[in-house]
Automatic annotation (TrEMBL):
This is DinB family protein. SUPFAM superfamilies: DinB/YfiT-like putative metalloenzymes (SSF109854). Residues 23-146 form the DinB-like domain. InterPro entries: DinB-like, DinB/YfiT-like. It comes from the Bacteria. The lineage of its organism: Bacteria, Pseudomonadati, Bacteroidota, Cytophagia, Cytophagales.
Length: 158
């Protein structure tokens, strides 16, 4: 398999919009008053989904680059306790961190000195390819939930 082609496809997968809308578009222009609202019959708000994506992506990035990284406790430390962000600044910081960490992971993928298939010297056989697929899968799953929540809150047009 052509390593360069695989890396390009993984970056495309992480950036979204192949088979679904991107995370960035899913959260764009969400009114502040809806960020912490839990739609009827859903156990989470859009804020909680965004923070969960941020925490999980950060954890995967750290795991992929730091052998001594200790993951948060599951599930409590992967989900925020509050339904909504404390401020606009907190909201924007979360979105910025998601973008920054995604770009850092993409930089790992674009580093041809890193073997996509080689198991990390720690963990249980994970490798960079597996972690890239995990981020993409996890983020796209929760991006779909964000869109569903926005629809239920009457704030999505497609």
């Amino acid at each position: 398999m052509n390593d360069k082609v695989l890396r390009k496809q993984l970056v495309s997968l992480l950036e979204g919009e192949n088979a679904h809308i991107s995370f960035e578009k899913a959260v764009a222009d969400l009114p502040a008053h809806l960020r912490g609202v839990k739609p009827a019959n859903l156990p989470y708000s859009i804020w909680q989904l965004i923070e969960h994506i941020r925490i999980t992506q950060w954890d995967i990035l750290e795991f992929s680059t730091n052998a001594s990284h200790q993951s948060p406790n599951w599930p409590d430390q992967y989900w925020p306790s509050k339904d909504g962000p404390a401020s606009e600044q907190v909201w924007q910081a979360s979105l910025s961190q998601i973008k920054k960490d995604k770009q850092a992971f993409i930089a790992l993928l674009n580093d041809t000195g890193k073997d996509l298939f080689e198991a990390f010297s720690y963990g249980e056989g994970q490798n960079l390819l597996r972690e890239a697929l995990l981020i993409a899968d996890h983020t796209s799953y929760h991006t779909g939930q964000i869109i569903i929540a926005r629809r239920l809150l009457g704030n999505w047009q497609s």
